[in-house]
Every structure is written in structure tokens, then in C-alpha cells.
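Tutorial handout. Part one gives the primary structure; part two gives the three-dimensional structure as C-alpha cells.
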Amino acid sequence: MTESILQFGAGNFLRAFADLFVAQANRTPATAFGKIVVVQSTDRHRADALNAVRGRYHVAVQGFAAGQIINEIETVDSISRALYAGTQWAEVRAVGQSPDLRWIFSNTTEAGFTLDDRDSARPTDAVAPHSFPAKLLDVLLTRHAAGLPAPTVVPCELIEQNGQKLRGLVLAQAGRWQVAPTAIAWLTDAVGWLDNLVDRIVPGAPAEHPLKASDPLLLSAEPFAFWGVQATARTGGFLAHPAVTLTPDLTPYYLRKVRILNGAHTALVAYALPRGILTVRECLEHAEVGPWLERVLFEEIVPVIAERAPEADAFARATLDRFRNPFLQHQLSSIALNHEAKVKTRLLPTLADYRARFGKSAPLLSAALGL
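Part two.
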């Protein structure tokens, strides 16, 4: 199978999300998507570990869904090899020049969406630039110089309009390097930059598991997974997978996630943390807090966004299942960080929508927030 994907990042999330989905798709000839070449930039430990097992590891899918506990094993074998940017940049460039390359994935976290003053000039030899946008630009320019078709870039960082923002950073870096106008036009118009929204909890290695001793790269992930991709002319042939939704507009899916999933988290901080409850799962099991959260979701949040957010009711029910996950210990104290800012973006718009729709305050959320 050809190496059709270059991936910047070898962290837990991509390995239990995109890399797992590609492995699943590759099992059927009709949906086969190709192999992945991983680029690790921070250190070579993860790259060496992936190469030692020839890119094969396991994901324990653990959680609660459809009224039952899920505890299954998935084998991931979609990674063909891993490269360390610090010493193997010439090989990374070679992948960029491969006729088989079609897609570039990334997850460098929000910290990766910045430029670096040390990248004022493009390296003249096979040395990796410092920032992720500069690394990506170097690979793209190498491909353009070879006269090969433009790839499609799919940044999986949890940033709204991530594709367009990365495009802007790459073009800004191209300006620093005084890239030729023909290459600028190619980067702007030929390369695909897909906005997308990813959603899955990947807590890392399970605390206990029969495979833990034999698989050093073992990960756990919740059953729920959603990958919304804003459809463009460049999404033709994108990964066919149950978790993938192609849509002309991602805005309703961002609204759904922020108001329901993130909003429920922040509501629990306001209501349950003062009652001495420490984890999200304990909230769902609590005789008072669990029913309270369900009422908040289905009486105050879902009614005001249902017309704008796809399948809002089903997403809210899936959210409750995610919160019931017996394999996770999601601390309310961690959700409470920057609580006031989260209230402004996750709950206050719902309160405003509720008043506009029903002519009164949302009683449960208003009381919880002391409004």
C-alpha cells in the first residue's frame, strides 16, 4: 500500500483518532486510504518507538455507550514509518516529493500555530526549520519545485477555522522567505486547506490492561469519535469512515460542541464542585446532580440550539454517556481552570438565547451561576 499521508505529530490523539480510522479504512479495498509517514519534531523517542514495532500498536476503546460498558481492542497498523525532523529532514522532504502523497495531517497543539523568528530565512541545506508552519512550507515548496500535484492539508488542532488559519501562517512565512509569486499562487489556490473539527477523549495509556506489558504504545480512547470536515472541491476521496462527517458548514457543529459538551462541563463546575463532587462521572451517578444535568441539557440548552445544531438531542444523550465513562476520572478541578472565561463563551450565550426564546431566565443555569 502506498504512503499517501504525511503526518506532523505522533502524539496520543492522532494515533487513537486519525491513524486508527485510516487503519480501519485500509481493511476494506473500497475504502483503503494508504499508509502514513509520521514526522516527530520534539524528540525522537516516539519515532524510535513506532519504528521499533513497525508502526503497529493497539487502542483500547473503553467507555459507556448505548446503555453498556465498552471495552474493546483495535489494532493500528496504518503507520509505515516515523521520521525525526531533527536528523532526517532530507527524508521528510523526499516524502514531500513522492508522487503518491495526497494528504498532510497534523496535530501540533495550539502552540504549533505560531511562527518563529529563527525562521527568517529558509535553510539552504536539509535542516528542518523551527516552527511547524515553516516546516510545512518547506515540504510544500519542495513538492512545488518537483512539479508535483498539490496535496490537501488537514490540520487537526482544536482551533476554529484551523485550515484557513494554518494557510495564513504558511503564507506569512512564505513572505518572510520571499517565495516566488508562482509558488505563492500554488500555495494559495492549488493546495487544499481543510477546516475541520475533531472530538474524542484520548486519556493516554490505560492504568491497567492485559496488553500493557507487551505493547509500549498502547493507548485508551473513548468510544465516541467525531471528525467534521468542511467540504470543498478538495474533499473528494477523503477518508470514508463512520466518524467522518463532510459538511458545507462546520459552524453548527462547533455550536453543538461548545454549548452542549463544553457547556455541560462548565455547568457542572458551577453546580457540583461546591457540593464536594470531584469528577464528572460522580456527577452523573449523584442522585441530585445527575438529574439536574439532564434537565439543564434537555430543558435549557438543547431547546435553544436545536434549530441551528444538527442532531442536538442525540449529541446531548451521547454526551451523558461520555460523562458516565467508568474508565475516566475527569476532574472537575481541571475543567474549572479559567472558569469565568468559559462561562462567557459556553453558558452566557445559552442564557441569552433562552431569554430571547422564552421571555424569561433559564432557571437552572441562572441559579447555578448566581444570576
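Part three, for discussion. The chain has a mean pLDDT of 96. The longest strand covers residues 57-65.
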